[in-house]
Each structure stands twice: as C-alpha cells, then as structure tokens.
Amino acid sequence: MPSARALRPEFVREQVQEHDFNVVNKPLGAWERIRDNAVARRLFILAVLACIWQGYASYLDNSLVLPTFSETMRTFLSRIANGELVLKSWVSIKVLLQGYMIGLVLALVLTILAMASRLGNDLLETLTAMLNPLPAIALLPLALIWLGLGDPSIIFVLVHAVMWPIALNTHSGFMGVSGTMRMVGRNYGLSGVRFVGKILIPAAFPSILSGLKIGWAFAWRTLIAAELVFGTSSGSGGLGWFIYENKNLLDIPAVFSGLFTVIIIGLLIENFVFRIIEQRTIRKWGMHS
Fold first, then answer.
1. CA dist., res. 82 & res. 101, Å (int)
2. How high is the mean pLDDT of the chain?
3. Average pLDDT over residues 89-110
4. pTM, two decimal places
5. CB–CB of 100/249 below 8 Å?
6. What does the pLDDT look like over 199-222, one tens digit per residue?
7. Does residue 102 lie within any of the structural domains?
8. 235: alpha, beta or left, given left = phi > 0 and alpha = psi -120 to 50?
9. In whole angstroms, what separates CA 147 from the centre of its chain?
C-alpha cells in the first residue's frame, strides 16, 4: 500500500499591532501643515516676489522708473476706495464677457460642423490655418473702419482671439474620444446634438476646458492691448485706458496699480472660476491624470 501522505502543518500568525513596530502616530506640526498647503506655498512665493520688488525699488529710489511695492499698494487701495479701479475693471470685464461668449458659441458651431461632415472638418482646418496665426490686435484698425469707435470693434477682435483656440482644442478633444464611447452612445440611440452633448462633450471636456483657459487668456491680453492702443470705448475706458492715461500723467504708481489689477483679475478667474469648474467636472469624473 502506498504510504499515507504527510499533512502540512498549519501555522496561525497573530495580527501584529502597530506599537510592536514602534509606529507612532504623530500629528503634523504647523510648519508641515503649511508646507502641504498649495495656497500657502503660492502665497509664500508671492510674498518673496513682493519683498524682492520692494528691495530693488528702494535701491533705485526712482518712482518714475519703478515705484516700491508699498507705494503701489497705497495707490491701488486708494483707487479701489474711490471706486475708480472698480469701475474701470467692470467696463473691461463687461466687454470681455460679450466677446468671450460670442466666440465660444461660434467655436462650438464650427466644431459641431466639423464633426458632422468632411466639408465642415475641411472648413475648420482651413480657417484655423489661415486665421489662428493672425494676431487679434492686428484686426482692430479694420474693425474700427467697419464698426466705428466703440464696443463693437473691440468685441470683434475679442471674438477672433477666443474662437480659434477653443475650436482647435474642442475639435482635438472630440477626435480623441474612443470608439468604445462612441458605440455606447450609438447603442443608446443618441445622434446629432444629443450625441454631442451626452457623449462627446463629457469625454472631451479636459481638452475643452484647456481651450476655454487659453481663450480667456488671449481675450484678456487682447482687450488690455486694444484699450492701451486705441483708448476709450463708448466714452468710458477700461483698465487699459486707465493705464494709458496715468502713463501720460507720469503717475507711475497708478500705472502699476492698474497692472496689478489686471494680474489679480487673471488670478481670480484662474483659481476660482476655472478651478471650481475643474473640480466639479474633470476631478469628480476621475478624468484628471
């Protein structure tokens, strides 16, 4: 008879507690919490830059060349208190939003046409190849001839600045949607606008959001440049005109306070509007790399 097979001994391991490894749960100190906070790190960088600015401007001791940070902040706060910078900012933002929204709608229409037919795709590629490299500010003299001095001329160049980067990024995002996602939409009977809205836009939203950010940056720079070069719009100027006027008056601290306002608005839009959109869409959907 064959010999009985030996049984394997069973070993039971008791659970090892953390204290057996000398693991100590130590709460983070104040410095560690600050260091792990992205907002605190960025504020620290801004504070360092402000100190460098203050030190170098104090060394030059010439407010016509470079006012100190403290002098710029005093001017900035005084112009905020009397409402001048608030009014100028609102004039600029109001015109910017009009041009941005029109450019966004036109970009989406072009992109949908490009996805719907080969002719639409050829149209988008041809127009972007022709017009995207053309600086928006270069069209302002023609816009002034066609539309006159006022908001319509500036809105025209803003639409040009916004439309092409949004259209290119949106089209690139749509083209990058996987075939599996497309088949899911077709299996659910989606087509046309419903297919674009429920399948293509959510799947391509990271690219779309990148286009929105780039379009915003292009529009903001174009608006300030247009106001700097061509002055007021409909009798009231925005931030660019504020900078230009104070440059002529040699009020350099006011010029820097205008530039400071432009930077602050850009930071607020980037870190609140677009950041909130990203958190509620891309990060929530698990699409962030």
1. 31
2. 83
3. 92
4. 0.79
5. no
6. 888 888 888 889 999 999 999 989
7. yes
8. left
9. 29
Tell me the mean pLDDT in the region 184-197. 79
In a domain, residue 100? The reply is: yes
Q: What CATH code is carried by the domain that includes residue 190?
A: 1.10.3720.10
Cβ neighbours of residue 172 closer than 8 Å, sequence gap 6 or more: 207
C-alpha span between 61 and 92 (Å, rounded): 33
Pair of tokens at residue 196: 């674009």
Contact 289, 208 (CB under 8 A): no
Structure token pair of residue 146: 């066609």
The pLDDT value recorded for residue 231 is 59
pLDDT of 149 = 77
Largest CA distance in the chain: 113
Give the domain extent around 265: 82-283
Q: Which two tokens stand for residue 248?
A: 């002529």
**Side chain identity at 8, as an amino acid letter?**
R
* Cα–Cα separations (whole angstroms), residue 15 to 22, 23, 102: 15, 15, 65
pLDDT of residue 55: 93
Query: What are the residue ranges of helices labelled H in 64-191?
Result: 69-81, 84-116, 118-131, 140-147, 151-175, 179-187
